[in-house]
Amino acid sequence: MTAIPGQAVPAAEQDLRDLFGQSVAVYATLAGPDHVVESANPAFHTAIGRDREAAGRPLAELLPDAIGRDVVAVLDRVHRSGAAATIRDLRVVLGAGAPAREAFFDLTVEPRRGGVQVIGVETTQIKHAQRLLTEQRILVEHIARQAPLAEVLDGMARSIESLVPEPVLVSVLLADPDGAHLRHGAAPSLPGFYNEAIDGIATGEGVGSCGTAAHRREPVIVTDIGTDPFWADFRELAERAGLAACWSTPILARDGSLLGTFALYHRRPRVPRDSDLALARVFTGTAALAIERHHIEQAEAAAEARAEAAREELAQALRAEHELRAEAERRAEAAAELAARLRSAAAAQEGVPHPERCQLGGPEGCDAGAEIKIADSWGDSAWGCPAHAEEAILNVRAVFIASAELGGLAAYLGR
């Protein structure tokens, strides 16, 4: 997509430009069988790690031995045969020391009178784009198949650490539901003691890079932990872990709520380039997608658990109701049977001489007629009205209706 002059570049496109840079064309003319540099554009000098002093020198002297042998072999073949050749994915290291970076070039070597010419383009940005898109596709596939959040975040962290040319350590912290604290999410290359120490740190102004970024809802770039006031409470911990810089970006949901933080740690003080910030923005968006998906899954699981609990509670209530109904029916049957026995006993004992009044009424007595004789296993017996006789049968152990008609113990012994 080409930007129209005077028109703002969309943020996503600008991130890709910052992340991958612009294509760089290289050109040089080389003379003779020794391939002496006659002329070259600045990009060629940069690619071989030299300045203008390269002119007038054989190319073999300007390249590292491992690279030079392969390149010179192609140059020799083109010079001898007069047929053009290509060199794919030539890897060189641009710069020296900490700022050095890995770069790749595709070169075409063509014959010319008295020598050869080299024309090429840097393909580093294409390789990085391919790797980034591949890693992102893998992460999105993991998210789509509902892989565990820890697995997705750990894979993302390792991908970033392998994508960038400079050593970097990635950390993802997850916000508590109230946004007041940050919990460990993923940090495969940070020491365990460091991850344990910052697990649960509060969000707030001046609480390291991540706590402050979460509080402000904006990136916080600390280029030197050793001097930055935000790290006053964590400086010794960072020193033990060998950390010197920390760039933290808040991970925000679509509604603006805090999901966590995404941090890039470095072993030496460092100021981020545009490509570093673009990388953080790209993968912060991926992390937001994974975390939001995880929250949705958690909410669905919680709702299903509540529904299952409600179903089980209803099932228990129905079982209890069924048991109560069954018990009520059993009691009703027992009561009906007892009432029938009482009526039968009363009818059988109607003509048997017995006290006129109920003997089971207790201290207050009972004026009702004595209709039923009851007894216990110890040989004690008494006459009572149907109500008190039923009460005694239900509440006194081993009490039974004493009736010659029912058979009694004699009938039991002769069974």
TrEMBL record:
Gene3D superfamilies: 3.30.450.40, PAS domain (3.30.450.20). Residues 148-301 form the GAF domain. The keyword Chaperone does not apply. It comes from the Bacteria. Keywords: Coiled coil. InterPro entries: GAF (IPR003018), GAF-like_dom_sf (IPR029016). This is GAF domain-containing protein. It comes from Nocardia jiangsuensis.
